[in-house]
Every structure is written in structure tokens, then in C-alpha cells.
Amino acid sequence: MRGRLLTALAATAATVAALLLINPLAAHAESNGGVRILPLGDSITDGFNVPGGYRINLWRALAAAGHPVDFVGSQFNGPADLPDHDHEGHPGWRIDQVDANASGWVSSTAPRSVLIHLGTNDVVQNYDLAGAPTRLSALIDHVRAAAPGADVFVASIIPLSDPAREAAANTFNATLPGIVAGKGAKVHFVDMHAALTTADLADGVHPSRAGYDKMAARWASALAAVPGSAGDDGAPTTLPSDSYVSLRSTTACCTTRYVRHQNGLGYTEVVSSGSDQLLKQDATWRVVAGLAGGCYSLQSRNYPAYYLRHQNGRVRISADDGTALMRADATWCAKTAPGGVRLASWNFPGSYLRHINAELWLATPGGTAAQDNAASLVPDITWSVNAPWAP
Q1: Nearest-5° angle of CA 324, CA 329, CA 333?
Q2: What contacts 390, CB < 8 A, 6 or more positions away?
């Protein structure tokens, strides 16, 4: 009896260990304050055979376009270099199974946009295919009811290698434009089937990495076509030209900290009316025409020949030596952001002035350096343009 009990316990332990290995970080969730996007679907959203799937390149494409986003969902997987692993992809699930939970998932995550790719398992399982369009229509209604302000993107399912399954997929896909057209202006059809061929499949059903990358590109194009669906950040905005300003952090922890230079390097520091005059001057900048020929440069208040620039990732002040590199490094383009502005690099579009551990760095969403960490990136690259501490 004792031997059988030990064997059973060992088997149970092995099962638990296996489940943990399948998704060891399932209890985690990542939030960076970016625009909330819910990837909703089955194993193709999960990333079967390529953990992370289309979400890997989609995140990078959106970040490169100036749209730091926050993927949301109860599931969590993908490679270490995917900054945000959250999603709502459930391997093997049909439309009805996802629909049974969708309202709760959407309500709890409050997405700005929802990406739906569903129906493959209905076809593969040959499950009431005639009723699949009706089931998807109901799912869309439930998603819309749970998030009335969200844009919902509904994709046709990707090709299948088996001819009979592909015929069924084509029949299902043919109904989707009509369904979407009847759901109002916030629901959008995405022709994902046309983005891939069977050569992009790893096993006849799921994409290869190249196939997932094609899906990412199609999702990115769809989001780009709907203003605001990936956030309104990134639109050019103006700064008070030829005026002195101070730049205040908008991160919740650090709203009394300002951009300043010290010993040639850029930092944030608490500045108040009681601060000494040197600190107030170090935290004051003159907004001038960009040294690179466009946008803006920030001239030091107390060292007028010096400008705020990035160099090897670190932000510092340097004298204008007349070189094209220095002038490009010292030129910043103001972009809109909730609660303030972002200062994007002139020569590294998609990279921003960021504070981290009180230091100033050039941060690239989705990059590999410590300052590129998506977990805290969005608030840390937003600045309030305030009256100067040293007019």
C-alpha cells in the first residue's frame, strides 16, 4: 500500500511540475501604463510552436511607431525579449468556449482595442460549422457590451493545409465582412487569411515564425488605419520656442523631480522654492530651434554653450562642436502623451528621454538595455513642461 501511495504521490508531483513548466509565469501580469490591447483567440494567439506568436513582432512594430502598448489578458507566455507577455489565447478552444468567458475577461482588463482571431478549432473539430458565424457574431456583441469604447478587430482565420478544412475555412471567412459591417463603426474586419499561405504554416494549422511575423504586420497595419486604437501618443506637438522651461517627471513616485544636469550628466532631482540657486539653474532649459535643423534643442540655463544630448544611451550636456552627430544627438521632437509630452530623439525615432533610478537615458521600447524595460517605461518617458525655476 505504501509503495502504491508513494507512486501516486510521485505521479501527482510530476503532473504538477509539468503544468508549471507549461506556463511557469501564468500568475504574473505586466502593466506598463501603455494603451491596453487584448489579443483574444486560441493557440494561434497563444503562439503554439512559437511562444508569443504574432505578439512578438506586433509589440515591436507598435513601439517602433511610437505607440508603447500594454498587452492584457489572463494568460502569459513568450520569449524573454518580448517585453509584455499577457494575452487571452486558449489552445484548442472554439468560439463558443471563448465566448463563455469573454465578457469577464474584457471587463476585467478594460482594453482600448481587442484583436480576435477565432474559428480555427471550430473547423478542425468540424464543430457545427454552419453555426460558427452566428457564434462569432454573438462573441463580438459580448465583447462590445463589455467594452463599449473599444475598437474590435475581427480577423479571418489563416489558411489550413488540408483541402477539406481549407474549404470550410473559406466558407466561414466569407461571412465575416458582412457580420462586421453590421456591428458599427468600432468593429473592423482584418483579412488575415490573405496575409499568409500554407507555406507559412509549421504543421498545417499553426504558423511558423515567418507566418506569425506576417500576422503581426497585418495586425499592425489594421491598428494604424484606426486612429487611437493603439493610442494617440506620438503626434507632433509644440514647445514654447525661445523660452525657458523646467521639465517635471509625471511618474506617480516622482512628480517633484525635474530634469537637471550635474557634472555633465543628466539626472532628475527634487526641486522646490527652497532649493539653492545652482540647482534651480541646472533644472532650467531654454527651448531653441533644433540644432539638427528641425524640432527643438534644450540649452542649459547656466551653461549657454551646452545642450541636452544623448551619447551611447546616457543623457548629458555637451557643447555644440558643430558636428552633425552632436547636433542630431541634441535635437528632440516633442510628441503628445497623456498628461504631458514625450521627447523623441531626432536621430533615433521611437526612442525617448527617460528617467530611471534618477538618471536620464535614451530609452527604446522593446530594446534590451535596462532603460528599455517596458514595465515602467511609459510613465517615465512623459514630462510636464513647467515654468522655469530660474527665469
Answers
A1: 115
A2: 244, 277, 280, 281, 283, 284, 301, 302
